[in-house]
Amino acid sequence: MSVDLPGDGSTQAPPATRGLRERKKERTRRTIRSEAFRLFREQGYNETTIEQIAAAAEVSPSTFFRYFPSKEQLVRADDLDPLMIAALRKQPRDTPPLTAFRNAVTTVFANLSAEELAFEQERQALLFHVPELRTAIGLEFDRNIDLIATLFAEHLGRDPHEFEIRVAAGAVAGGVLAITRTVPMNAENIGRTLALLEAGLPLPRGS
């Protein structure tokens, strides 16, 4: 069903219909990912095929590919990105960028369910511990630098390609990457990383 928009003769689904459609698509996407991760746990990443994931999610392989171009991309997809973007955009513009980023992290993680947090931690573990996925870490690092640089630039009213913006974005992305293999990825540990960067990386000598 569609309605005509006044004056231009174009058609589009009513808002309620679009909302229902989007919720259905999101449920399908989440089901595909959750079933994939269940199969990865049960039989291993390499041993799990796209056909098996599709069957477990009760969709066709072609439907799988409409949501994810590959099995690797299913793991790489970061559901926290849009949440972080929204949370950072709500920060006051006069807040220093690292502080704003830390506040956004706190907000996002505070609103994650235990299941959502566990899923994200499992996703990170897969990237680091499945040899076939380790090449994706470099791609994720580059993507995160670009994203953070864009957000910092937007927050400060600057160009994301500026030297200082790129360095700051690289420091944040690198700091988070550095702790991911050794401590749980949560608001506390990411917050500690950002606080250390904010303080200018003080590194006192050991006793």
Brief account:
This protein is mainly α and 207 residues long. Helices cover 68% and strands 2% of the residues.
Topology of helices and strands:
Blueprint: E1 3-4, E2 11-12, H1 15-43, H2 50-56, H3 61-67, H4 71-76, H5 80-89, H6 97-110, H7 114-129, H8 135-156, H9 163-180, H10 187-198
Antiparallel strand pairs: 1-2
Helix pairs in contact: 1-2, 5-6, 6-10, 8-9, 9-10
What this model shows, in words?
By secondary structure, this protein is mainly α. It folds into two domains: 10-70, Orthogonal Bundle (Arc Repressor Mutant, subunit A); 78-201, Tetracycline Repressor, domain 2 (Orthogonal Bundle). Helix content is 68%, strand content 2%. The protein has ten helices and two strands, in the order E-E-H-H-H-H-H-H-H-H-H-H. The protein has helices spanning 15-43, 50-56, 61-67, 71-76, 80-89, 97-110, 114-129, 135-156, 163-180, 187-198; strands at 3-4, 11-12. The protein has a two-stranded antiparallel ribbon with strand order 1-2. A hairpin with a 6-residue loop joins strand 1 (3-4) and strand 2. The radius of gyration is 20 Å and the shape is globular. Mean pLDDT is 90; it is low at 1-11.
Give Rg in angstroms: 20 Å
Assigned CATH architecture of the largest domain: Orthogonal Bundle
Uncertain residue segments:
1-11
CATH topology of the largest domain: Tetracycline Repressor, domain 2
Strand percentage, roughly?
under 5%
Largest sheet: number of strands, sense, barrel closure: 2 strands, antiparallel
Share of helical residues: 55-70%
**Spatial strand sequence of the major β-sheet:** 1-2
Distance between the termini: 72 Å
